[in-house]
């Protein structure tokens, strides 16, 4: 299941510095960011192999996760928060604030074959 991490941050009178170190076990192969996404739903997939780390470096967004067993929603509302996704985590990002910038780090280069778009069955509460 996805894990919410607190990134190491250094504060001083000169500003804040937040560090991505040793977040992805296999290193970082790809970096991209999502912006201008207000009123949009992004993601909508899981992976066969890729691990991803998400942080909202500006603004806020929510991330829905379903790993086939559990469902969770996380709010990324600080550049110090990092959501680590396993390949099995079907995810969608939504409720982007105005000027939100969602930074994504991946341990794999883009490969179309790595994406799985079919959702898990939704859990039914008894």
Automatic annotation (TrEMBL):
<dbReference type="InterPro" id="IPR008894">
    <property type="entry name" value="QdtA_cupin_dom"/>
</dbReference>
<dbReference type="InterPro" id="IPR014710">
    <property type="entry name" value="RmlC-like_jellyroll"/>
</dbReference>
<feature type="domain" description="Sugar 3,4-ketoisomerase QdtA cupin">
    <location>
        <begin position="3"/>
        <end position="119"/>
    </location>
</feature>
<dbReference type="GO" id="GO:0016853">
    <property type="term" value="F:isomerase activity"/>
</dbReference>
<keyword id="KW-0413">Isomerase</keyword>
<dbReference type="InterPro" id="IPR011051">
    <property type="entry name" value="RmlC_Cupin_sf"/>
</dbReference>
<dbReference type="Pfam" id="PF05523">
    <property type="entry name" value="FdtA"/>
</dbReference>
<protein>
    <submittedName>
        <fullName>TDP-4-oxo-6-deoxy-alpha-D-glucose-3, 4-oxoisomerase</fullName>
        <ecNumber>5.3.2.3</ecNumber>
    </submittedName>
</protein>
